[in-house]
Amino acid sequence: MSSTGSKPEERKPKKGVDRTLIRRLSVFLRPYFGWIVIALLLTVVVAWLGPLRPYLTQIAVDDHIAKGDVPGLARIIGLFALVLFGEFLLLAVTTYLTRWIGQGALLRMRTAVFAHIQSLHVQYFDRNPIGRLITRTTSDIEALSDLLSNGVVNIIGDSLRILFIVGFMFLLDWELTLVALATLPLLIWSTLVFKRLVRVAFLNVRDQVARLNSFMQEHINGMSVVQLFGRERREAERFDTINTDHTAAHIRTVFIFAVFWPVVEVLSSIAMTLVIWYGGANSLESGVSFGVLLAFIQYVRQFFQPIRDLSDQFNTLQSALASSERIFAVLDVESVVKEDPDPLPAPTGSGRIEFRQVSFRYTEQEPVLREISFDLEPGRMVAVVGATGAGKTTLINLLLRFYDVNEGSILLDGHDIRRYRLHDLRSRFGLVLQDNALFSGSILDNITLGDPAIDRDTVVRTARLIEADRFIERLPGGYDFQLKERGGSLSTGQKQLICFIRAMVYDPPILILDEATSSVDTETEHLVVKAFDNMMKGRTSLVIAHRLSTIQHADRILVMHKGEVREQGTHTELLAVQDGIYRRLYELQYRDQASVYS
Amino acid sequence: MRGLLRLNRFFRKYKGTVALGVVYLTASNGFLVWIPILIRQTLDELQIKGADAELAWYSLWLTLAALAYGVLLFLTRQTLIVTSRRIEYDLRDELYRHLQRLPMSWFAQRKSGDVYVRLTEDVNRVRDYFGPAFMYALNTVTRSGIVITMMFVVNAELTWWALAPLPILSVLAYWMSRYVHERSTEIQEQYAVLAGRAQETFSGIRLIKAYVREAYETARFQADGENYRKRKLRLDFVESLFHPTLNLLIGSSIVLVVWQGGELVMRGVLTVGNIAEFIIYVTYLTWPVAALGYTLNLLQRAAASNDRIREVMEAPAHQDPPDARMPAGPGILEFRNVGFRYPGSDAWAIRHIHLVIHPGEQVALIGRTGSGKTTLVQLIPRLFDPTEGEILLDGRDIRTIPIAELRARIGFVPQETFLFSDSIGENIAFGRSDADQAAIEAAAEHAQIKENILDFEKKFETILGERGITLSGGQKQRTAIARAIIRDPAILILDDSLSAVDTKTEDAIVRQLLRAEQPRSIITISHRISSIKKADRILVLQDGRLIEEGSHDELIRTNGAYATIYRKQLLEDELAVL
User: Fold this and answer.
1) A88 contacts in B (CB within 8 Å)?
2) Cβ–Cβ contact B252 with A under 8 A
3) Which CATH number is A433's domain given?
């Protein structure tokens, strides 16, 4: 939510658009259709039972009390109690039922939004702040909660209740009904005025609260700056201004409420007075009895509640529609990395990769890759080195179709990768990413990523193979050790080992490693290097390397610089190039490590 | 709870208004009770006199009573609730002013989010004590006192019947609002889990796509959503019962009144008017009785929040010692065997630091991340105080110098540039409250940011941050430098504050900084050799100790840690230009 002090958006929703929105929303309610019908039927009954009570009072007074009929009174009281209990039961059931329906629809919707966002192309995630995407699956859905869980039913229930109350009143005495409802226009008018005033006042309060909160937030975080520059007095003065405005905004709201509540109370008392006055005056001529008066006194009070509730409901409706617009906007985004409509069968070849004249740019500006061409033979290891920003990681993004190439093509087993189904293509690769992506959950889950085909034994065996078993088993719970978000409690090297195990248990024909840039602690360093060698044995692999020590045995090393392949060859060949880029990179690393161990 | 009583000192300031509010509230209930009484009298009159009854007068009185009640209700809210808002103001003001005087060591031990909650949420909860809780409690007492008295005056037997269901209502409301509060916390937690899951998935999207785990992630998210739904429904279950139960209890009260009242009417003890009267009494009692339970919860929550606020208020604020004064002298800064441990940590961040910095000297600090560079410079303006040893300014321990005067002599540019969401001019003037436009522009020019600022549409009035524009890293750093040099400080500390500025601009800034009118000491932290090469003295820190000290040439000759860093950077520079 923005904290700008903008004017309230007086958006007049277009009817047509709203109808589409409602139709799209109803898709999520479809499985509950039968239940919704039941809820609506129950609502009708409940709306009728409430106004029935004053009616029974009338019968009790006029037909029994007035005539001294004790057993009759007991009978009507029994009926009364029954109605009361029935209303209690049905109201409880209806309320819970509608909420249950609403929560179910929300869950379906939330999951659908999540699944859809997840299916979008990677670039969408680069362009939209993660925070905004999270909002779509959380608070935007939450805003619909009121609408879906009770909004609609309440609107129908309240309207029916008003109808039934008026109906019963007319049934008892139509003249008196008109008198009792005389204050109604005034009530409706004042409610409308109140709603308008309070809306403006609330927006003002919201702005002031936002202003106060952001001042607080900023000054807590920047307190050292305030103190360093000796600004305590000035900042306290500024805070006073904001605090004063904040209080004033609240006091204004208090005033509006302080006027409105008494007005409602007074109006309902006046309605009661009118009933007594008019009803009393006509009691003999038109047969208005005490029972009728008593019933009307109750009706007048009953009547005011649903009117106030209704005006609230329309507000929730408005804000819910605004949220659903945002949600459907996301659902309407289509992935730009498209599946081939007539895909090739899953690749089964040995995993030969060819980059042919591949060029790529993320934005309209500088290309990140310029006409890159190279082959990766099955069973071989190609390493890519280069400074940060040389375009190394982009190679992986293209190979896995996180993005599609702008020019040229990438072939897997002789066919353009765009011809395979995404699922088939990606299943051919085992990926170890630069940022050591770990999730909250057990180590086992982080390795299998929930694939039921990978059993615990495989995981343990693989861990042993790369000698990661010892540190895992030392953790409390071993493989069931629960990781915090992003693997918090583990060291960088340990996280990397887990990612290695993950890549290996999936047993892919082609391994892709985007090696971590961050320094690994000396304790796990040798483990990581060893595990790395183990993993590469006999596999086709593409390694983006930052630590040159790990790739000296590579079959070929590509040296990338500013989007182009500038040098290639084996480690020995490249080192022999005087003034070569690789040679300098190597020296740089060597010195770095020398200083680490010095 | 006792803590809340201590809060009553805030009431004292407004005792006149509060007393008036109490009178209004009591009086309003006094008029309210007239409505059912008048209705009963009217009905009785009707019963006796029939069509001859003088209804006009009764109606007039009824209307007047209703109006009086309305006006008094308005006045009650205008006094009591408004006062609670004013007290909230006072409380927040006091709290913020106190917070400003707390030392950094206090902030370092707390999450900023936690402090934030205390200043916002907790203050709101305490406000509930002064406002709604107080008003509702008072209303419950006065209204039920008056109404129940009236009921007993009319008929004791019927009163007992009418009141029977009400205590259940009060208990129910209490239990219910507590349950809702607990469940809401639980729901909030699961909501956070849900958001966390989305966060993890969306930020790890590459991995998920690479391993084709979309379906699994969706299933996990759905499971979390299902859990959330279950928790929500548990709350919904109780909430769905609340309203119907409320209805049932009030309804039973009315049933009992009609039934027992009816029999009393038939025995001739009461009139039909009395039944009408009692039905209205019961509806009047509903809210105050339900509010009783709700109020108790408000009080409990306010008490808990108040404890958290008191923890802040009772934290000792900074106080200059009575004999504090600024020493006269050229401005020689000396570290004598200084060691520092962060609060709550066992490890020494820096230790055994001996160092003298003369006026006009340019000193540079270099070392790996975590070697203690920032810690060392933070001790100079007393963001923290040394754990052992002392720091002297012209021979006087800086702890015995008035902190405002000490800081006034220091220009500090922190590592993480912190600018306020205010205009860029205001941000620069932050360094000196009395700065005029000319001074702001001069500082901006010296920090090499003026041209950038003039390129903005609103120049110096350009708003920064959330509501305005986002500056680049280098622009932020230069703005922060302008903020520091507008003070014309005797000691200027630059904590890695030129890292995002290119070398040419950096040279220009440093040259300008050295051209101060009075001799100025500059302490620079940097990772870039090029920016510290020309310093008079370079200090190399490793694991909190000073390991090398000397000029660039001296240190290169020593061929130690500094020389290694230097050679590495040379190679990097070579690669960059290929």
Assistant:
1) 244-245, 247-248, 251
2) yes
3) 3.40.50.300
Distance from CA of A16 to the nearest CA of B (A): 32
pLDDT tier for residue B26 given thresholds of 50, 70 and 90: very high
Cβ distance B51 to A284 less than 8 Å, yes or no, reads yes
Helix (H) or strand (E) holding B549, with range, is strand B545-550
Residue A283: predicted pLDDT:
63
Do A258 and A213 share a structural domain? yes
The residue among B286 and B144 whose pLDDT is bigger is B144
Interchain contact A107–B (C-beta under 8 A): yes
Tokens matching residue B95: 């709290």
CA pair distance A227, A223, nearest whole angstrom = 6
Structure tokens at B382: 């007393």
| Size of chain A in residues | 598
In a domain, A314, yes or no: no
Give the pLDDT confidence of A218-266 residue by residue, as tens digits. 888 888 888 888 888 888 898 999 999 999 999 998 898 888 888 888 8
Contact A64 B467 (CB under 8 A): no
Please tell me what DSSP assigns to residue A32.
G
Query: Which among A182, A279, A174 is positioned nearest to B276, based on CA atoms?
Result: A279
The answer to whether residues A213 and A77 belong to one domain is no
Q: What is the spatial distance between Cα B62 and Cα B47, in angstroms, rounded to a whole number?
A: 18
ipTM over 0.90: no
Residues 230-249 (A) with a CB less than 8 A from some CB of B: 230-232, 234-236, 239-240, 243-244, 246-247
Q: Reduced to 3 DSSP states, what percent helix, strand and coil does chain A have, rounded to the nearest 5?
A: 65, 10, 25
pLDDT digits (tens, 9 = 90+) for A179-225: 888 888 888 888 888 888 888 888 888 888 888 888 888 888 888 88
Structure tokens of A205? 């309060």
Number of domains in chain A: 3
Report if residue A9 sits inside a domain: no
Average pLDDT over residues B159-183: 83
Residue A86 lies in a domain: yes
Tell me which residue has tokens 């990612």: A499
Residue B156: CB atoms within 10 A of its CB come to 9
The residue among A87, A219, A269 with the most chain B CBs within 10 A of its CB, best to mutate, is A269
Cut 0.90: pTM above it: no
Least Cα distance to B130 among B222, B12, B229, B291 occurs for B12
Q: Which domain range does residue A235 map to?
A: 174-287
Q: Best residue in A208, A229, A305, A404 to probe B by mutation, most B CBs within 10 Å?
A: A229
Interchain pair A104, B229: CB under 8 A: yes
Buried-state track B474-490, b at ≥16 Cβ within 10 A, e below 16: bbbbbbbbbbbbbbbbb
CB contact A226 to B (< 8 Å): yes
Pairwise CA distance, residues B423 & B482, whole Å: 14
**Which of A339, A517, A364 minimizes the C-alpha distance to A422?**
A339
Cβ distance B247 to A88 less than 8 Å, yes or no, reads yes
Instruction: Kindly tell me if the per-residue pLDDT of B226 is higher than 90.
Output: yes
Beta carbons of B266 and A226 less than 8 Å apart? no
B149 CB contacts (<8 Å, ≥6 apart)? none
Phi-psi region of B352 (alpha: psi -120 to 50; beta: other; left: phi over 0): left
Torsion of CA A173, A177, A179, A180, to 10 degrees: 130
Distance CA B85, CA B17 (A): 13
Which residues of chain A from 285 to 344 reach within 8 Å of chain B, CB to CB? 285, 290, 293-294, 297-298, 301
Does A412 fall in a domain? Answer: yes
Residues of chain A with pLDDT under 70: 1-18, 283-287, 311-312, 315, 364-365, 387-389, 434-436, 484-489, 491-492, 515-529, 546-547, 549-550, 588-598
Measuring CA to CA, which residue among A247, A10, A441 is closest to residue B89?
A247
